[in-house]
Amino acid sequence: MRRTEPESGRGLRLRNAAALHRPQTAAMKDGHLDPPDRWAGARARLLDAVDADFAYTAAETGFAAMPPGVRAAMAAVPRHRFVEEPWRDAAYDNRPLPIGHGQTISQPFIVALMTAMLELRPTDRVLEIGTGCGYQAAVLARLAAHVDSVEIVPELAAGAAATLAALGVANVVVHEADGHLGWPPGAPYDAVIATAAPAALPPAWAAQLAPGGRLAAPVGAHGDAQWLLLLRKDAGGRVHEQRTIGVRFVPLVGRAR
Ligand code: SAH
Questions:
Q1: What's the average model confidence in pLDDT over 95-99?
Q2: What is the pTM of this model?
Q3: Which of the following is catalytic: 16, 61, 104, 106?
């Protein structure tokens, strides 16, 4: 598995900076130059749908409503830029969508819920396992100082880095690697989020959490029920685990070491 050099501090984001300078024709073909309000109605309806899901699951999640900061981040990130045709018109539906390589971009409610669970502060450093198309990373990036995001499929890592660069998201670095080990060069993290489900939590993820840190991850053996777990590490380094809602994520692949 090719890894980006952690010591150099240069992730795929920089390697793909050229994406910023694509000719206008390509950008237009991608729908990048749509008038800004083309998606506004769909995005507002999506936020309403996500609000409804927060209300519906409040007893299990402990969140009565979508926190305002999370709502602002969800409103600001153009989800249609992270999916390809023919899915772009469905970009603001409250459902997962295919992103190629057998992977999916998570349902917006789940993105919002997991982001809420992390209780991000503007100075936080975040580790994401499973970059996919980079949408979740872009949401996190609006609420935190820095996001390291690890993706095992090279094409997805490169594509996400290019999309994030094209959107001017400068505080996400995509690393092409197996996320079972987390991202040791960047640890400790104030928050860790996984968007692919392991059968059991890899020990490295909680180990790379700073005291006071939060970790949100789906867990469940392939084919079995999965649960969204929220872990908190207290000031003394003890980890407290809370099981929230049942979920369905793609499996964490690669190899536990
Ligand atoms: N957060 C993503 C969701 C992507 S789906 C988004 O917003 O689009 C989960 C991703 O986890 C997939 O892209 C998959 O390739 C990746 N993945 C699976 N196993 C992995 C592993 N061991 N290490 C890193 N990424 C992994």
A1: 96
A2: 0.88
A3: 106
